Amino acid sequence: MPSGKSRRRLLAGAGSVLFGGSVAVFGGDTITANLESTGSTQLGAADLTAGTIPASADTLAVAQVDRTEPPEAVRAVAGLIAETCPFASVPARLRGLVSTDSSQTVDPSRIGKLAFVGSADGRGAVVVWADWTEDHFADVVSVGGSTDRRTEMRYGRPMYIAGDTAGSVLAETAFVVGHPSIVVDTIGVWHGDEEPVGESTLSTYSLTRRQSPFRFTLGDVQPQCDCTTVVRKPPVYDHVSRWYGFITNAGVLRVSMALDSKNSENTAALAAALRRDLGLTEGAAARVELPSEAVSELSVREGTDAVTVRFSPADTPHPSTLTNLFGGLSQLVSGE
């Protein structure tokens, strides 16, 4: 087993893990996977998620912590996802690390990366790459939940359970904590015969910028905020099947909305609806409440089967602007 110094080296750059015949270096998502078994030398996000995230994942959102608290711009967006219902079983201190609304947080100096994994049935967990001992992690599972902690075995690994929260040690610097069903699925990917994450989640995640501090692909997870005017939702939003993107430390935000079919009419209609609802169409009343200077830094672009909203501020925006923009986009799609 590596020494304490070696463990810190493994964690540098958002964490490295040795499992099976694979070496995974999580920082720039540079992964060399299954070298002994397949001879593969594929690099990139596909190898990161396929060997790490279970097939039950409908949502994947990855925060690069790199031993420091994320800046406010990142937390303004990441916190909206972390505080959604699927992640209610994740300890508040972990969610608080990427949220602007929480005073409870774990020590970021021991954490490299967080991967929020949500299922289509509203359950979630977080895979954490951290320089923790197993005893410390067991305490993290228990904090804020039931003090009656018990241990069960899954795929030959101990799983701690406290109330509605479960957790397990995946590798020396890798842990999973959250809803028991997602924790079991994740243990199964690492140490059993569970299937890895599916193509619909993986393919859109791989389109997001690798070096960003927060990347996401969302299925049924719908972040909420009181930031849109309530009117009847245009039918074109019903064709949005998934949305994905990233945010930078400076507050540059990209959100792409994928449609359920390659239909140029639907793509054009979605782009027109977004321009109108974001205040980019002259004479139309915007539904998302944003400062005028923020609206001027927005653009909407059409692709073959997706429409992308780009927010490129000249200066780091106020967190509330990002919260309103990201939450507003979610509510446009969900109609809630």
Number of strands: 15
Counting structural domains, the number is 2
Q: Describe the main β-sheet briefly.
A: 12 strands, antiparallel
Kindly report the spatial arrangement of strands forming the biggest sheet. Answer: 7-8-9-10-6-5-4-11-12-13-15-14
Which shape, going by the Cα principal axes? Answer: globular
Query: What portion of the residues fall into strands of 2 or more residues?
Result: 25-35%
**Measured on Cα atoms, how large is the radius of gyration?**
20 Å
Structure description:
The protein is an alpha+beta fold. The chain has two domains: 59-198, no CATH class; 222-334, Gyrase A, domain 2. It is 29% helix and 26% strand. 48% of the residues are buried.
In short:
The protein is α+β, with helices and mostly antiparallel strands and 336 residues long.
Describe the structure using short key phrases.
alpha+beta; 29% helix; disordered N terminus; Gyrase A, domain 2; 336 residues; 2 domains
What is the fold's blueprint, element by element?
Blueprint: H1 4-11, E1 16-19, E2 22-25, E3 30-32, H2 35-38, H3 45-50, E4 57-64, H4 72-82, H5 92-96, E5 111-119, E6 124-130, H6 134-142, E7 150-154, E8 157-162, E9 165-171, E10 174-178, H7 180-191, H8 199-205, E11 214-218, E12 240-247, E13 253-259, H9 264-277, H10 292-295, E14 298-302, E15 306-311, H11 319-334
Antiparallel strand pairs: 1-2, 2-3, 4-5, 4-11, 5-6, 6-10, 7-8, 8-9, 9-10, 11-12, 12-13, 13-15, 14-15
Helix pairs in contact: 4-11
